[in-house]
Design goal:
alpha/beta; Arginase, Chain A; 300 residues; globular; 10 helices; eight-stranded parallel β-sheet; Ureohydrolase_dom_sf
Length: 300
């Protein structure tokens, strides 16, 4: 059975101005249940992450500043909102959901987190609404527990996975692949193992062609035994922040290409949802739900 991490705290409201995107964390599982794509037993509620698992990826001083709510105001501004205890708990439950999802994926081929994709968090900083890097933490968990030897992180959010790239810049066992808008946030990029920087208004055909070519390359080059996939839907033409021009159909085809590559190479995959900022919440939710629909069709 394919498993999906979800906890009510995922939809914890951010400060004024940031609440709208949070609605999707309640609406995605509700829609999937309503339409019958999933059943209640597909969902699981993650516990908080342990400090040991956090400091294998993030520097201890940074973590203690988060935990004790003493992060300097300058660093809080870099994150994008003031810290509070519930936001920190939200992040550690998201990261635990991604770890548990990875364990489920080892058993069932694929697993999901309704939230996650916090790829702007580096080893000692938070940025872009990301405090802790869930897929980086889960990657290190698999490596440290000898559950994977070679990991591929496929980041198809419209923003570069700069935190992920920085964390694994000297880790040969993890290959970081980010395909993102060249002129989009973050404006200071880190160097992934493979960066595909796309010009503004990149359309369906160009995006899908580059993705096919890149997936073939990264699977053959790195030969992973586990994949983490960040499936942001801020690549849509309707996205307020994305600057690319993908249709919802192409976004769904993107997901299918990734899952088919994982199946072809017999590699389990954990999926975190990433960003989505279209003006219509229905567009965001439907595009995210397509990721689940494609996977449930392919994996059964």
């Amino acid at each position: 059975m394919l498993k999906i991490a979800y906890h009510p705290i995922y939809a914890h409201p951010l400060p004024e101005g940031h609440r709208f995107p949070m609605l999707k964390y309640e609406l995605i599982p509700a829609q999937l249940l309503h339409e019958g794509t999933i059943q209640q037993e597909n969902l699981f509620s993650p516990e908080p992450l342990t400090e040991k698992d956090i400091i294998t990826t993030h520097e201890e001083v940074y973590w203690l500043q988060l935990k004790n709510l003493t992060l300097p105001l300058k660093e809080q501004r870099r994150i994008g909102f003031p810290l509070n205890a519930q936001l920190v708990e939200r992040e550690i439950r998201i990261a635990k959901g991604t770890i548990n999802g990875a364990l489920y994926a080892l058993q069932n081929g694929a697993a999901f987190n309704v939230a996650g994709g916090t790829h702007h968090a580096g080893s000692n900083w938070g940025e872009g609404f990301c405090l802790l890097n869930d897929q980086a933490i889960a990657s290190n968990y698999l490596l440290n527990n000898h559950l994977a030897k070679r990991i591929l992180i496929i980041d198809l959010d419209v923003h570069q996975g700069n935190g992920t790239a920085e964390i694994f810049q000297n880790e040969q066992r993890v290959f970081t692949f980010s395909m993102h808008g060249a002129k989009n946030f973050p404006f200071r990029k880190e160097q992934s193992d493979l960066d595909i920087a796309l010009p503004d208004e990149t359309d369906d055909d160009v995006f899908l062609s580059k993705l096919k070519e890149s997936l073939k390359f990264v699977f053959e080059k790195h030969q992973p035994d586990f994949v983490f996939y960040l499936a942001g839907v801020d690549v849509l033409e309707s996205d307020k922040l994305g600057k690319l021009s993908l249709t919802k159909k192409a976004c769904k085809q993107r997901d299918q290409l990734v899952f088919e590559a994982c199946l072809k190479h017999q590699v389990p995959v954990q999926v975190s949802m990433g960003g989505g900022y279209s003006a219509d919440i229905k567009t965001i939710v439907d595009a995210h739900c397509n990721t689940f629909r494609v996977a449930f069709d392919l994996y059964g």
